[in-house]
Amino acid sequence: MKRPPMGRRHLDVPAVLDYLEARLDATAMARVEDHLAGSCSRCRELLHEVGRLVDAMRADRTPPVPAAARARALTTFGVRARVQDSELAAWRRARLLFDSLAAPLPVAVRRAVGEARWLKFALDQHVLEIETEPESGEQVTVRGRLVAPEPAVHRIELVAGSETLTAWPDAGGRFTLERVPTGAARLTVESPDHRWRLPSVVL
Predict the structure, then answer these.
(1) What backbone phi and psi angles, to 5 degrees, belong to 59?
(2) Domain assignment present for 64
(3) Do 181 and 158 share a structural domain?
(4) Is residue 65 included in any domain, yes or no?
(5) Which of 52, 54, 59, 112 has its CA 20 to 30 A from that of 143?
(6) Domain of 87, in residue numbers
(7) Would you say residue 158 has pLDDT above 90?
(8) Do 122 and 186 reside in the same domain of the chain?
(9) Which residues contact 196 (CB under 8 A, 6 or more apart)?
């Protein structure tokens, strides 16, 4: 059966999330806005509910998971360290491969990414890519992608000012840290096998 046009269909949660996160193209964005501007109070209420949830998640500053709890979880779900703790003691140094402040991006790429800064680090044979984008005030959003086997078992920690933020990449290696204070920042990456310190960067 043919589905009714967007103007007469209710929005679902993925569509509302894509709209709030500005992931829609101009045509899809206009369709959603036309629908919300109509008489559909149900979808406007869904927009408000999802918006409140997203704001609460962004404001959340849940402390890092205790190491003992994480170790139990890894054991429970069958992810076990392949080296002894004594072998894990030594920090490895990540190597900076690229910084768009030192090696500016081509003009066409700069137009596409705006004020975003791009960094790329080598973690032995793995790669960590980071994009920093200014937010309002003295804060930035840090988005990244870890190219490594089993990226989801890697813990990424960022210390900036008095804030300590932690991220666990998804299965594709992607992660986001929001409302990161500007200034000098220290990044570390830990896996069940190894851990790396990145050179200090100024956000």
Answers:
(1) -85, -10
(2) no
(3) yes
(4) no
(5) 52
(6) 70-202
(7) yes
(8) yes
(9) 91, 92, 93, 94, 123, 124, 188, 189, 190
Q: Do 14 and 105 share a structural domain?
A: no
Please provide the size of the chain in residues: 203
Number of domains in the chain: 2
The helix (H) or strand (E) run that includes residue 201 is strand 201-202
Residue 15: both structure tokens together: 């569509």
Query: Per-residue pLDDT tens for 75-100?
Result: 776 655 454 444 445 899 999 998 88
Three-class secondary structure of residue 190 per DSSP: strand
Domain boundary among 59, 79, 103: 59
Q: What is the mean pLDDT of residues 134-154?
A: 90
pLDDT of residue 114: 53
pLDDT at position 84? 47
How would residue 105 be classed by pLDDT, with cut points 50, 70 and 90?
low
Q: For the chain, count helices (H), then strands (E).
A: 6, 11
Which residue in 171, 179, 140 sits closest to 56, CA to CA?
A: 179
Question: From the centroid of its chain, how far is CA 73?
Answer: 22
